[in-house]
Amino acid sequence: METKDIIFELRTKKGLSQEELAEKVFVTRQAVSRWETGETIPNTETLKLLSQLFDMSINTLLGSPRQLICQCCGMPLEDSNISKEIDGFFNEEYCKWCYADGEYTLDIWKRYAEIGGKEKLEEFKQQLIHEFNTLLHIEGLPKVENLNVLSGEFINMEYTLPNGEKVKFLDDKQTYLGSQLESEFGGDRCFGIVANMDFILIATYEANGENPELVIYKKR
Description:
Blueprint: H1 3-13, H2 18-24, H3 29-37, H4 44-54, H5 58-61, E1 82-84, E2 90-95, E3 99-100, E4 103-104, H6 107-113, H7 118-135, E5 148-151, H8 152-155, E6 159-160, E7 166-167, E8 175-182, E9 190-195, E10 199-205, E11 213-219
Antiparallel strand pairs: 1-2, 3-4, 5-8, 6-7, 8-9, 9-10, 10-11
């Protein structure tokens, strides 16, 4: 849908006249009319007000021209999972699990916020990527291009050691940097790579994390 149709549909569903909508976002009725005929689109500040009023992201109001991705964990963003600021405005850079009410919620973000914020986290990501690509030589592991922030609760697999003991290496309550990569050998197994300031872990597993096997667990 185009912006003109989206605004018209939202306004009518909310039972507002053009004049009533204009009053709520501090414009004239004629401005609303021009939006709905497609002559113009709202400016950035007005889009923010419309976003808050209709509980819909600016991206959706504009007809979803971009695929939004959480800049923290890499999750595809939709209106239902986009984060919000304290004032209720959408923050279209993050999901609601990584950022809420003006604050990063994951411990790894909080830790880096204390020493420089997002820039420092990006530096650390690049450092880890370099380590994966140059210091480790795992057959079948493709080149690592990016790392996402991952919750330990969802990636904490249980591995069987040679002596039969079953172990988990992660903490469900912590967050880590990692990714899933298809093996260069093909087949139905993937690589899972995980790291933080203290260690690097590489494993392989089948679909949905079935039959995980530990490849390497290395202190940094």
